[in-house]
Each structure stands twice: as C-alpha cells, then as structure tokens.
Amino acid sequence: MTAKHTSTTAAATTASAVDTIPEKTESLEERFKLTESNLRSWLLGPYEKARRPIMEARKRMRDEGISEKLISNSTYFEETSQEHVDKEMLKLVTDRNGRFLSIPKLLETGRVTPAEIDSIRAFHNGLEPPYYYITQVHRIYDNRTNPPKQYLTYDILFEGLALGKREHVVNPEPNLRINTSATVGVHNLAQIGWNTVKDENGNEQRVATFDYTYGMQDNPQSRVYEFLYSRELAEEMLKHTKDGEVGLSISKLREQKHYAVSASDILDDNIEAVLEKYEKPAGTKTEIHYHTDSKDYEEYLRWKRAKEENEAEHRNSGYQ
After folding, report:
1. pTM, 2 dp
2. What range does the domain containing 227 cover?
3. What is the b/e burial string over 43-70, where b = at least 16 CB atoms within 10 angstroms of the residue's CB?
4. Is residue 5 part of a domain?
5. Which of 66, 102, 188, 318 is most exposed by smallest CB count within 10 Å?
6. For the chain, what percent of residues have pLDDT higher than 70?
C-alpha cells in the first residue's frame, strides 16, 4: 500500500467542548499524506491540545507577575505513559535527521540485506513500511446543541521500521517491525480551576490550579471534536482504508447511542433519515462490528485494548 495518505474555568472548558479548532488550510490530500510531521501531529497533537488551557493560564499568571515557582506548583503535570510511548515510537521510526526509516535508505546504508527485504515485504503482503491505513471512521451527531452539530473522527494503524527496540522490550519483533495506533480528530481539554493562595512571600495570589492525576482523564463533557462533518472529508477518509476494510459507526451524543453503519450512511448528508432507519422500529443500541477478519486488524484491536488497560492501570496507581 502506498500511504496517501481569557480566564479558564471548569465551566468555560466544558462549554468549549462542542466547538471545533480551526482546520488546517492544506488540501485534503496533504492532510492524509503520511509524512513525519503528520505522524507526529496524529500521535502527539492530542496531548499538546489537551494542555492548552494550562499553557494559557500560565501565560496569564506570568503577565500578572506571579512567580514561576507558584505557577509551576499550581499547574504541575507529568507526561502520560502513553505519550511517552508515542514519543519513543517517533524516535524509533526516524533517522537522525528526523526522516522515516525506509527500505531504500536501509539498503543503501547496508543496514539490511536483500533477503531481509524480501522477508519484510512478504510479512506485509507486498507492502513496504512505512505506511498507514484508517481502521475506523466515526461520525458524531452532537444533538446536545441547538442546532445539532456533526463531526468526524478516525482511527489509524501505522506500520514502520525500527532498528532499535521499545523500552522494556527484551526481544524486538522480527522484520524490523514496529506499529502503533491513534485516534485523530478529538482531544480532551485539561480541567483547571482558580483559587486564592499565598505565595512564598506570604502574599495572596489568585492562581490557576490543576490536578494532573484526575484533570486530564477522558471525559465526554470535555471532548473537543476537531473536524466538522462533510461528505468530501468522509470520502477522503474512506480512500485510506486497507482494501475497504474499516469499522463504520455513528454516535448520538445526548442519548449515548452508537450504531454500526454502512459506507452509504457515513456519506449521507441526511443524518436524521439515517438515524431513523436504525432507531425505528427496533430502537435498540447496536454494537459496533468491524468489517474485517484480517490478522493485522485483529492485532490492532488487541493492541488498542492493551493500551487502554495500561492507561487505566496508571490512573488507578495515581500516575498520569
């Protein structure tokens, strides 16, 4: 496959969850092209966007003359475990110049043999890493607002080449394989508050406060959906699936109902008619089923479940 691919309060943060961030002005083709900068944005963008309220609050406090020590203490946060994994991933799949490791580059520098190249291609069914494909397209119907808004998110699976190995891994995978997944088009904003505290000189200061243990958990009320729905955008997403194998779903946010749907439903501009088809006469919640039996996709699902369990374990242990 060729890769085509002001003051901030808790209330204000929640209210912003239904707004989209400005979309990039680049073409759809450029947005879905596999590049080093796009992969970084897909993997690390959600963490950086999530901390925007903290960064803005810190700037405001600096402008008001509050000390760096107090700013740091009141808005302390740590890198999440998954963010650490994603940063490590980006280092492993690129060279010293930040460019993707590829078969031609590795062959040119003598890092792989022709026999190894044949094995890599066979493992990937003739494809050459790096590449990615979209594994799920999710249409969001946000009827919590009047009028309702619609958004699109999508999941990707990235396959790369790595000369090194992940931290805590004893034996790296054969064929220089390394992969990861990500959800693109949604992030959670950090939840901050404001409080009056005494600084190191005993003076009262109004500062932003943030509890990093609980303040960045996935919360439906603080989600920001980034891509407004359009048929053109949905069509572009479907172009980047693996041989048409993709999970398709529609969610109604107010009722928290989720439906497995067809490609024609994802592309239908009349969302009310689409939802009526699934809600009448049965009116029951349909579990999402993925239209693929591929070994790669099953592995992706196992990876995603393991990632979610890992994040839950770190939250329960108080590390975020």
Report:
1. 0.78
2. 10-314
3. bbbbbebbbbbbeebbebbeeeebbeeb
4. no
5. 318
6. 79
